[in-house]
TrEMBL record:
PANTHER family linked: TOXIN, YALI0E33011P
Source organism (scientific name): Gymnodinialimonas phycosphaerae
Name of the protein this chain belongs to: AAA family ATPase
A UniProt-annotated Pfam family: AAA_18
Amino acid sequence: MPNHVSLDAAAGLLVRSRRIAVVGVSGAGKSTLSQNIVARLGLRYVSLDRDVRWLPGWEVRPRDAQRRLHDGFVAEENWVIDGTTIGLMDTRLSRADLLIWLRVPRRIALTGVLRRVLSSYGQTRPDMAPGCPEQFPDREFLNWIWTFEKRQCPRLFSAIDQHAPDLPVVTLTSRADAARLLAMLNEESPRR
């Protein structure tokens, strides 16, 4: 069972953490939260979508190349890694100081995806690989979001139990939780 911590405890841990994993369903706000944390703490931002998974034209990078890139980032001393590729969790979780899990209801995730499409359609977002402009979600992507809680959450729990059972995990169930965490982070005095 994961080592769940409260939002208050997470804020104190966050300011002292050098390696932070941010996971959750697409559209939950992982990239936004991650980039805000990076701006406050001065850590390196790694987007699995931009830096590991995708090549231009929405081509998926080969798995062995994804693993090499991912593990190279994980070996560094300071990072916020944004993404939920469970097949790469082993090394990331074992090196992380804190796991932030955005576990929002699917309606919030779907709304987040809709807002993202409306604001960025045809453009490449900063957290996405070059040559991968925002597009309308296809059925497979929408199904990923719709079934995330049932299919992916048990796999994520298993990965945490197997690779980092003592890793502090804070679960954020709303955008308001994420905003509260950032507000508390602003109140803490960063050591960097």
